[in-house]
Design a protein that fits this description.
It is globular and about 60 Å long. It has about 270 residues and is an alpha+beta fold. The protein has 9 helices and 10 strands. Bound molecules: zinc ion. Zinc ion (ZN) binds next to loops.
Protein backbone atom coordinates (compact mmCIF):
# COMPACT_ATOMS: atom_id res chain seq x y z
CA UNK A 1 0.00 0.00 0.00
CA UNK A 2 1.39 3.45 -0.84
CA UNK A 3 2.48 5.42 2.23
CA UNK A 4 2.49 9.18 2.86
CA UNK A 5 5.44 10.05 0.59
CA UNK A 6 3.92 8.18 -2.37
CA UNK A 7 0.49 9.75 -1.88
CA UNK A 8 2.04 13.24 -1.58
CA UNK A 9 3.95 12.67 -4.82
CA UNK A 10 0.75 11.48 -6.46
CA UNK A 11 -1.00 14.66 -5.28
CA UNK A 12 1.86 16.74 -6.80
CA UNK A 13 1.50 14.91 -10.10
CA UNK A 14 -2.28 15.45 -10.25
CA UNK A 15 -1.93 19.11 -9.19
CA UNK A 16 0.61 19.71 -11.96
CA UNK A 17 -1.69 18.09 -14.51
CA UNK A 18 -5.08 19.63 -13.68
CA UNK A 19 -4.54 22.22 -10.92
CA UNK A 20 -6.13 25.66 -11.46
CA UNK A 21 -7.89 24.36 -14.58
CA UNK A 22 -11.57 23.69 -15.14
CA UNK A 23 -12.55 20.19 -16.29
CA UNK A 24 -14.37 19.94 -19.60
CA UNK A 25 -15.36 16.32 -18.90
CA UNK A 26 -15.78 14.10 -15.84
CA UNK A 27 -16.56 10.42 -15.48
CA UNK A 28 -17.53 8.53 -12.36
CA UNK A 29 -17.89 4.74 -12.46
CA UNK A 30 -20.26 4.56 -9.49
CA UNK A 31 -23.93 5.27 -10.21
CA UNK A 32 -24.50 7.29 -7.05
CA UNK A 33 -21.71 9.70 -8.09
CA UNK A 34 -22.96 10.18 -11.69
CA UNK A 35 -24.87 13.42 -10.86
CA UNK A 36 -21.53 15.03 -9.96
CA UNK A 37 -20.28 14.63 -13.53
CA UNK A 38 -22.47 17.62 -14.43
CA UNK A 39 -22.01 19.48 -11.15
CA UNK A 40 -18.23 19.50 -11.44
CA UNK A 41 -17.82 20.22 -15.15
CA UNK A 42 -16.45 23.75 -15.55
CA UNK A 43 -15.61 24.13 -11.84
CA UNK A 44 -11.97 25.08 -11.28
CA UNK A 45 -9.69 22.62 -9.47
CA UNK A 46 -8.42 24.69 -6.54
CA UNK A 47 -6.37 22.21 -4.55
CA UNK A 48 -5.04 18.65 -4.61
CA UNK A 49 -3.90 17.43 -1.24
CA UNK A 50 -2.79 14.20 0.43
CA UNK A 51 -4.39 13.36 3.77
CA UNK A 52 -2.57 10.40 5.28
CA UNK A 53 -3.05 7.75 2.63
CA UNK A 54 -6.11 9.48 1.21
CA UNK A 55 -6.31 12.20 -1.43
CA UNK A 56 -8.68 15.16 -1.76
CA UNK A 57 -9.23 17.12 -4.98
CA UNK A 58 -11.04 20.36 -4.18
CA UNK A 59 -13.13 22.32 -6.69
CA UNK A 60 -14.66 25.77 -6.47
CA UNK A 61 -18.10 26.03 -4.82
CA UNK A 62 -17.07 23.59 -2.05
CA UNK A 63 -16.97 20.31 -3.97
CA UNK A 64 -14.29 17.82 -2.88
CA UNK A 65 -13.50 14.42 -4.37
CA UNK A 66 -12.09 12.11 -1.70
CA UNK A 67 -10.31 8.92 -2.75
CA UNK A 68 -8.42 6.24 -0.89
CA UNK A 69 -6.52 3.82 -3.10
CA UNK A 70 -6.32 0.96 -0.58
CA UNK A 71 -4.17 -1.75 -2.15
CA UNK A 72 -5.03 -1.54 -5.80
CA UNK A 73 -5.98 1.99 -6.83
CA UNK A 74 -3.68 3.73 -9.30
CA UNK A 75 -3.62 7.20 -10.85
CA UNK A 76 -2.46 7.86 -14.40
CA UNK A 77 -1.90 11.23 -16.05
CA UNK A 78 -2.41 11.34 -19.82
CA UNK A 79 -2.85 14.04 -22.47
CA UNK A 80 -6.54 15.03 -22.59
CA UNK A 81 -8.75 12.19 -23.82
CA UNK A 82 -6.05 9.52 -23.94
CA UNK A 83 -6.03 6.35 -21.85
CA UNK A 84 -3.24 4.07 -20.60
CA UNK A 85 -3.00 0.45 -21.73
CA UNK A 86 -4.26 -1.38 -18.67
CA UNK A 87 -6.70 -4.13 -17.72
CA UNK A 88 -7.79 -2.14 -14.68
CA UNK A 89 -11.27 -0.63 -14.48
CA UNK A 90 -11.58 3.15 -14.79
CA UNK A 91 -13.29 4.62 -11.70
CA UNK A 92 -12.80 8.34 -12.19
CA UNK A 93 -11.66 10.66 -14.97
CA UNK A 94 -11.10 14.40 -14.64
CA UNK A 95 -10.29 15.86 -18.05
CA UNK A 96 -9.27 19.45 -18.72
CA UNK A 97 -8.45 20.74 -22.20
CA UNK A 98 -4.81 19.77 -21.51
CA UNK A 99 -4.72 16.59 -19.41
CA UNK A 100 -6.72 13.68 -18.08
CA UNK A 101 -6.24 12.53 -14.48
CA UNK A 102 -7.46 8.92 -14.41
CA UNK A 103 -8.04 6.78 -11.34
CA UNK A 104 -8.26 3.03 -11.83
CA UNK A 105 -9.38 0.27 -9.45
CA UNK A 106 -9.70 2.47 -6.35
CA UNK A 107 -11.94 0.96 -3.72
CA UNK A 108 -13.14 4.19 -2.16
CA UNK A 109 -14.28 7.36 -3.92
CA UNK A 110 -16.73 9.97 -2.68
CA UNK A 111 -17.75 13.57 -3.32
CA UNK A 112 -18.29 15.81 -0.30
CA UNK A 113 -18.63 19.38 0.91
CA UNK A 114 -16.18 20.74 3.48
CA UNK A 115 -18.46 19.91 6.42
CA UNK A 116 -18.68 16.20 5.50
CA UNK A 117 -14.97 16.22 4.73
CA UNK A 118 -14.31 17.52 8.24
CA UNK A 119 -16.50 14.78 9.76
CA UNK A 120 -15.23 12.00 7.53
CA UNK A 121 -14.53 8.83 9.59
CA UNK A 122 -11.03 8.39 8.16
CA UNK A 123 -9.94 12.01 7.71
CA UNK A 124 -11.23 13.30 11.03
CA UNK A 125 -9.11 10.82 13.03
CA UNK A 126 -5.77 11.42 11.32
CA UNK A 127 -2.80 12.48 13.44
CA UNK A 128 -0.30 15.13 12.23
CA UNK A 129 1.08 14.56 8.73
CA UNK A 130 4.89 14.34 8.72
CA UNK A 131 5.00 16.03 5.30
CA UNK A 132 2.96 19.08 6.30
CA UNK A 133 5.39 21.10 8.39
CA UNK A 134 4.83 19.49 11.81
CA UNK A 135 7.78 20.26 14.13
CA UNK A 136 9.79 17.67 16.11
CA UNK A 137 8.61 19.12 19.46
CA UNK A 138 4.99 18.36 18.55
CA UNK A 139 5.87 14.75 17.67
CA UNK A 140 7.83 14.31 20.91
CA UNK A 141 4.95 15.72 22.98
CA UNK A 142 2.50 13.50 21.16
CA UNK A 143 4.64 10.39 21.77
CA UNK A 144 4.59 11.09 25.51
CA UNK A 145 0.86 11.81 25.61
CA UNK A 146 -1.15 9.41 27.81
CA UNK A 147 -2.98 7.87 24.86
CA UNK A 148 0.28 6.83 23.14
CA UNK A 149 3.16 6.49 25.62
CA UNK A 150 2.35 2.94 26.77
CA UNK A 151 2.10 1.45 23.29
CA UNK A 152 5.00 -0.14 21.42
CA UNK A 153 6.48 1.86 18.55
CA UNK A 154 5.66 -1.12 16.30
CA UNK A 155 1.95 -0.59 16.88
CA UNK A 156 2.05 3.24 17.21
CA UNK A 157 3.65 3.72 13.82
CA UNK A 158 0.82 1.88 12.08
CA UNK A 159 -1.80 3.95 13.93
CA UNK A 160 -2.89 6.74 11.56
CA UNK A 161 -4.26 8.60 14.57
CA UNK A 162 -0.73 8.92 15.98
CA UNK A 163 1.08 10.17 12.87
CA UNK A 164 -0.61 10.00 9.50
CA UNK A 165 0.93 8.63 6.33
CA UNK A 166 3.37 6.28 8.03
CA UNK A 167 3.04 2.69 6.86
CA UNK A 168 5.04 -0.47 6.91
CA UNK A 169 8.33 0.41 5.22
CA UNK A 170 8.55 3.78 6.99
CA UNK A 171 7.92 2.06 10.34
CA UNK A 172 10.98 -0.17 9.93
CA UNK A 173 13.17 2.62 8.56
CA UNK A 174 12.24 5.34 11.09
CA UNK A 175 12.88 3.01 14.05
CA UNK A 176 16.19 1.90 12.57
CA UNK A 177 17.31 5.50 11.96
CA UNK A 178 16.42 6.36 15.57
CA UNK A 179 18.10 3.12 16.82
CA UNK A 180 14.91 2.16 18.65
CA UNK A 181 13.81 -1.47 19.03
CA UNK A 182 10.19 -1.77 17.79
CA UNK A 183 9.03 -3.34 21.07
CA UNK A 184 10.06 -0.26 23.03
CA UNK A 185 7.38 2.22 24.14
CA UNK A 186 7.77 6.00 24.31
CA UNK A 187 7.62 5.76 28.12
CA UNK A 188 10.73 3.51 28.08
CA UNK A 189 12.89 6.14 26.36
CA UNK A 190 15.05 8.99 27.59
CA UNK A 191 14.09 12.51 26.47
CA UNK A 192 17.04 12.42 24.06
CA UNK A 193 15.81 9.17 22.50
CA UNK A 194 12.28 10.59 22.10
CA UNK A 195 13.79 13.66 20.40
CA UNK A 196 15.81 11.40 18.13
CA UNK A 197 12.65 9.47 17.26
CA UNK A 198 10.83 12.70 16.32
CA UNK A 199 13.69 13.85 14.12
CA UNK A 200 14.04 10.44 12.45
CA UNK A 201 10.30 10.32 11.71
CA UNK A 202 10.59 13.68 9.91
CA UNK A 203 13.91 12.97 8.20
CA UNK A 204 13.08 9.52 6.85
CA UNK A 205 9.58 10.45 5.64
CA UNK A 206 10.82 13.70 4.07
CA UNK A 207 13.72 11.93 2.38
CA UNK A 208 11.45 9.28 0.91
CA UNK A 209 9.18 12.01 -0.47
CA UNK A 210 12.11 13.96 -1.95
CA UNK A 211 13.88 10.97 -3.52
CA UNK A 212 10.89 8.93 -4.64
CA UNK A 213 11.27 6.13 -2.14
CA UNK A 214 14.81 6.11 -0.75
CA UNK A 215 15.19 6.09 3.03
CA UNK A 216 19.00 5.86 3.09
CA UNK A 217 20.99 9.12 3.00
CA UNK A 218 22.67 10.22 -0.26
CA UNK A 219 26.24 9.46 0.82
CA UNK A 220 25.38 5.89 1.87
CA UNK A 221 23.29 5.21 -1.25
CA UNK A 222 26.09 6.55 -3.49
CA UNK A 223 28.72 4.46 -1.70
CA UNK A 224 26.62 1.27 -1.97
CA UNK A 225 25.85 1.98 -5.63
CA UNK A 226 29.58 2.43 -6.34
CA UNK A 227 30.11 -1.03 -4.80
CA UNK A 228 27.73 -2.43 -7.42
CA UNK A 229 24.70 -2.83 -5.16
CA UNK A 230 21.22 -2.93 -6.75
CA UNK A 231 18.48 -0.46 -5.86
CA UNK A 232 16.72 -3.05 -3.67
CA UNK A 233 19.89 -3.22 -1.57
CA UNK A 234 20.68 0.48 -1.17
CA UNK A 235 17.13 1.85 -1.12
CA UNK A 236 16.45 1.04 2.55
CA UNK A 237 18.47 0.42 5.70
CA UNK A 238 16.59 -2.76 6.61
CA UNK A 239 13.23 -3.08 4.87
CA UNK A 240 13.13 -6.09 2.53
CA UNK A 241 16.73 -7.01 3.42
CA UNK A 242 16.28 -9.95 5.83
CA UNK A 243 19.35 -12.19 6.10
CA UNK A 244 21.57 -9.49 4.57
CA UNK A 245 24.13 -7.45 6.53
CA UNK A 246 23.15 -4.17 8.20
CA UNK A 247 24.75 -1.31 6.17
CA UNK A 248 26.13 0.21 9.37
CA UNK A 249 27.26 -2.65 11.63
CA UNK A 250 27.31 -5.73 9.37
CA UNK A 251 25.01 -7.82 11.60
CA UNK A 252 22.42 -10.02 9.79
CA UNK A 253 19.01 -8.34 9.51
CA UNK A 254 16.07 -10.17 11.10
CA UNK A 255 12.52 -10.25 9.75
CA UNK A 256 9.55 -10.78 12.04
CA UNK A 257 5.89 -9.75 12.37
CA UNK A 258 4.51 -7.14 14.74
CA UNK A 259 0.96 -5.77 14.83
CA UNK A 260 0.17 -8.09 11.94
CA UNK A 261 2.74 -6.72 9.48
CA UNK A 262 6.31 -7.67 8.61
CA UNK A 263 9.05 -5.65 10.26
CA UNK A 264 12.86 -5.77 10.05
CA UNK A 265 15.29 -5.31 12.92
CA UNK A 266 19.05 -5.10 13.39
CA UNK A 267 19.50 -6.60 16.86
CA UNK A 268 22.87 -4.97 17.23
CA UNK A 269 21.85 -1.40 16.26
CA UNK A 270 18.40 -1.52 17.91
CA UNK A 271 18.85 -2.76 21.46
CA UNK A 272 15.88 -3.61 23.61
CA UNK A 273 16.29 -2.59 27.25
CA UNK A 274 14.17 -2.76 30.42
ZN1 LIG B 1 23.19 -2.75 12.55
Amino acid sequence: MPEGPEVHREADKIRNAIGEQSPIYLYFYHDHLKPFERDLTGKQVQNVEAYGKGLVISFEEDFHIYSHNQLYGKWFIKPAGEYPKTNRELRLEIRTDRNSALLYSASEIDVMDSVSLHEHPYLSKLGPDLLKGVDPETIAERSLDDQFRRKSFASLLLDQGFLSGVGNYLRTEILYDARIHPKMRPMDLSDEAVDKFSKSALTITGRSYQTGGLTTPDDLAIKLKSEGKMRRDYRHFLFGRDGKPCHICGENIQKTRMSGRRIYICDSCQKQYD
